Amino acid sequence: MPIVHFRVDGRLIHGQVALAWSKMTNPNHIIVANDMVASDPNQQAILKLAAPKQVRISMQPVDKVIAYLNRGLAPNERVFLLVKDVVDANRIYEGGFKYMDLNIGNMTHKPNAKKLSEKLFVTEKEFEALKSLLEKNVNCYFQMIPTDSKQDIRPLVEAFKS
Predict the structure, then answer these.
(1) pLDDT tens column, 30-42
(2) Going from the N-terminus, what domains does the chain have, and what CATH number goes with each?
């Protein structure tokens, strides 16, 4: 399955994705799986402005992306999959598209969020989704940009649970 990268980032498409991550992973298609973005033409227009010009962009509801991924991708398709939160990442896994690695980027502070690290805040729902992915042995790691070291999320979750 030609998924070149799967990332959680509350900002979705922005400079780091458009420049650093796209350069490293060389996708020809960025898929944003998010129910709100899929129904908001204004937000879609803004995200398209931030996207690399040579890369095809799709913004679809999570269930539609699950169906697309489960059908299988074309052999020449190199997809960078992007979701806004770990809840949607978990929905994709539970929807039948099994993946092994999940890059967690910026998940900023929000009301009622738990602080796992300086740049990683999760709501109770996101925390449960993260635990679910870890129980499925998905390699969840925090990495803002490709040149940063990967930080395993499991110890942060374990420390918070205790």
Answers:
(1) 999 999 999 999 9
(2) 3-161 (3.40.35.10)
